[in-house]
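User: hey, got a sec? need leucine--tRNA ligase folded
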Amino acid sequence: MLHTHQLQPYFLFLSPHSHTVSFPFPSRTTTSHSPRFPVTSIRRGSSSLRFRNRGRASISNSVADGGTEHQKQPVNRAYPFHEIEPKWQRFWEHNRTFRTPDDDIDTTKPKYYVLDMFPYPSGAGLHVGHPLGYTATDILARFKRMQGYNVLHPMGWDAFGLPAEQYAIETGTHPKLTTVRNINRFRTQLKSLGFSYDWDREISTIEPDYYKWTQWIFLQLLKRGLAYQAEVPVNWCPALGTVLANEEVIDGVSERGGHPVIRKQPMRQWMLKITAYADRLLEDLDDLDWPESVKEMQRNWIGRSEGAEMEFCILDSDGKDRDIKIIVYTTRPETIFGATYLVVAPEHPLLPSLVSIAQSKHVEDYVDLATRKSDLERTELQKEKTGVFTGCYAKNPANGEAIPIWVADYVLGGYGTGAIMAVPAHDSRDYDFAQKYDVPICWVVTPDGKSVDFGKAFNGEGIIVNSSNTLVGLDINGLSSKEAALTVIEWAEKSGKGKRKLRDWLFARQRYWGEPIPVIFMDDSGETVPLYETELPLILPELDDFSPTGTGEPPLSKAVSWVKTADSLSGRPATRETNTMPQWAGSCWYYLRFMDPHNSKELVGKAKERYWGPVDVYVGGAEHAVLHLLYARFWHKVLFDIGVVSTKEPFQCVINQGIILGEVQYMACRDQDGNLMSADSTDLLNERKLEIIPAEKVMKSGDSFVLKENPNIRLHARAHKMSKSRGNVVNPDDVVSEYGADSLRLYEMFMGPLRDSKTWSTSGIEGVHRFLGRTWRLIVGSPLSDGTFKDGTVSVDEEPTLEQLRCLHKCIAKVTEEIEGTRFNTGISAMMEFLNAAYKWDKHPRSVIEAFVLLLSPYAPHMAEELWSRLGHRKSLAYVPFPKLQQGRGHSLLLVTLEFILEANPTYLKDSTVVLPVQINGKTRGTIEVEETCSEEEAFVLASRDEKLSKYLDGQSVKKRIYVPGKILNVVLDRENIYAVPGRLGNGRRVMALLDGKCELAQYLPGMTVYDLYTILTGA
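Assistant: Yep! Here you go:
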């Protein structure tokens, strides 16, 4: 405790604001060793000893630097998220806070439809990669609600499909039981993360009320000749027991499960005539706000009606054929003589077999770098193309020439075959690559049939040149591009060096767990008869044995009583279709059902579709950039043609979030004696030889990572996509338990740009958790001694300073701009900068703090709701107006209510300001920040509102002002000074006048005691 005899060598200064201060002075019987002065700051060598009010309500920072106290607290004690988050989740659910109005909607308000690509509910549940996109859409949804929009933000389940059926076969549990159990788990996990979904609109593709309308759409396709049966060669997967579409086969294995796929003789299959819409699907891409790389992938996939897969033999070091072939897909088979190199994706399964020893280190480094990028980063058209030569060659099947094989990240392993034949003379991207790496260029198409070097890629059609090889029986010189393409495809199929690419959508699956196809076949004539719409839904029958038959006969053929039926009109015996629809069917139109989920008479009501359509923002993984989006666009255009929807496209803006990679793993090898050694390039291509080193045994040395106990052993650092097989999956439930849902949400947005791939780091989430803890302490306070927190908060209702206004308004502008641009990480940075500044303020006006809580709320809704409540508000902040940018200048912002902060004034965003020193009676008492063109009157007003300067000016009579623009403001006061000595008063007036702010006490007081000070202040 501070004693008055310790104050003797100090200068005493009392602020004019001291009239508000209560001084509990002791009686004369109190000893000098037990004073009760409310001292809050003492500075040796300074000109002041301050007494500050502790009785008034004020938002005070308990730790000035905002960090020292936290270091003494366990990370999970930063704030009481364990109590806050369940509390507000219950509140939102009980009050249906995020229910989107249905029939009672006010259609005069603007709408905002933000949608996640709904998940397949796997048994593994969510991992931390899933909430990345979900958090982004939730921030947008909350933001738009606060801006006054009607927001549609629903969630549902893409629940039919092979994974559930495979699991059911392995465990003997019916797929419906496992699917429903998985859905319940997913729903619980999503709710624990505080996502503001309207759960009243929840849908699942396995519910008959839903797939009734999937079947109805199929009937409309059938009526218009867009669904048809054909005998087509198929991709048969024995392990899955079903036919797969070309899009579901990658490098000879199934997309799901990686099972071998073989080419089988023609089978009767249902096909959807997507090629009939090819032109419209291409043309309408130009009007969409999609990533250009996604649109380009769709253009390439739609391509032309004819395409081909070509086989290229790999050559050994002697130039002889190896028993390895690379399959490439091309939409321009007529240019095959101009293919001067091949490019494979970094993740191509054959890559390890294609790399020479000399090139292995270069390839390994390149592949490692490529795996850290998202598909969108890799395919960005404006990005300079990079690659590495593998050291291996392939043989061009048309001319027999050896051409180099390169690995490049602009080719994606999950797109097409993961390999392309590069024809630099006739593809701009290939041309740039060839120029950069000095690869040969051969022109094989010219406008007039004359061989010429154009100096750039010629991408158009024309007459074929330089394209003849009698040894293989192929000569297309002089043919038009279209004629040559057909000739090359026919030659490839006959010679076994390629095949025609199927372009229409193979729609049937020989599996049980899918939507039944609503047609029957008449037993007496074989005629295909669609069901009547009144017979929908055609319910999927219960089966005890739903395993594949192994013969190609679908599992539904086992449901004999269901299969054998009769035509409802004629009564003639008939047989039901036993194939089911593919998993894609239910996900092609679900966005429409969310608009009107309980409508039993229509797929979607016309008024609701006109209001909500199209989806404003659609967020999901880049792996769906082609297939799902293409099929959904196809169905949507059909529905547009028949008058069900009013828009030509379903999704106006598509955003592909990046992937979250597992934590960095450090790897080394062991030698023959079992000793650790650096991982060489050859071992890196064979992960079975690598051993993972725990992070605590690793240290950084320059640009490398080494073993702590032996720095000579260089380790290889790599981050992989999360998967159970690698053991690097992080469960969000564990993160929420340790750090809270708001910390997880905030961290996933802070890791980096939404569209980029990012590496998970536990230390990173601790950082944002500390930020939330600092926010809590600024507003609520520090934990009490028993570990609990104060119930309620304190605030000060006073005008913000110019500094506080400038800081807040810059934060409003930045956060608003970055949410609109989905640059959430930089929005968080702006809030962190604001918090750092706020910790330096002596006081924190309620209006400023409340505005900051609103800015934080889309990111960390649980904490924001709790802070909003503790600031005295009884209603949720979910629909409180978001602070917005204001056009123009206005001084009404200097009100002491929240309303003044709801708009960010450009006045406070300008940087054309100067720091103006302010003198009182010739002595500098502080500074103010003013515009360079600030007038004398404006400068004086700002000075009088400044917290430090106002105590000199409040209630004073100003004799004159001296103002030099941009240099200084000197205010000369008409006032009297009272000088005091122990036990006496000057000028015959009591010093109590000082407490009214009308005079100044200034004197060196040696030997002053508590009784002397009591006498000075009271006159007693």
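Quick note: Residues 802-820 form the longest helix (19 residues). Let me know if you need anything else on leucine--tRNA ligase.
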